[in-house]
Amino acid sequence: MDWNDYDAALFDLDGVITPTADVHMRAWAQMFGEFLANRGVAEPYVDADYFTYVDGKPRYDGVRSFLESRGIDLPEGKPTDEPTAETVAGLGNRKNVVFEQILETEGVEAYPGSVKLVQALVDRGIQVAIVSSSRNAPAVLRAAEMIDYFPVIVDGRVAAERYLAGKPAPDTFLDAARQLDVPKERAVVLEDALSGVAAGHSGDFGLVIGVNRGVGADALLEHGADIVVDDLEELL
């Protein structure tokens, strides 16, 4: 691709810049696995459920989507619910506790290819932003020593404060482009989640790049990616 055609790159975080998608997967699996076992639900949580119902979505949307797949109806609750609460918000907060425990214990390092691409783009004057459904984006970027690269971070907390619809709606990506003062046609979206590439496609951005970290190239293309790579270093 020719980066001269674009002025900004809008990166998802988990699975694109850092391998924290794996941490999220483990946290969701632990939380939902224990929840289903306690309720005596026969159909267990499996890895495919993460990609189908959870990946890339705001936390509570992911909880709601998975529960619907199992025919489980819980009260919505509030974001202030304790992690022990049997509510949508409570389960989301419970998952976040597990995520933070894993992150604190194991830490995180950015993908080397992603670091190289971000550094190269910044050096040539292309603006960069993080657009993540996670409310942990700043903490993850600090842990990976990448936060100084990104003057604009639109994460789950920012989206909630600004009443922005989460992915697969394009609102968070559009907000990041506005903050960078770059027309969407001159911005590139880089995503590993189906909901994320769908958001980039529906937002009519200049280019949507799917990053295949396990969901599959065909699925990314079907949901709106223009091209698919296995590692961001391929884009240098």
TrEMBL record:
The lineage of its organism: Bacteria, Bacillati, Actinomycetota, Actinomycetes, Propionibacteriales. Its cofactor is Mg(2+). Its EC number is 5.4.2.6. Transmembrane segments: none annotated. Gene3D superfamilies: HAD superfamily/HAD-like, Putative phosphatase, domain 2. Keywords: Carbohydrate metabolism, Hydrolase, Isomerase, Magnesium, Metal-binding, Phosphoprotein. PANTHER family: 6-PHOSPHOGLUCONATE PHOSPHATASE (PTHR46193), HEXITOL PHOSPHATASE B (PTHR46193:SF18). This is Beta-phosphoglucomutase. Pfam families: Hydrolase.
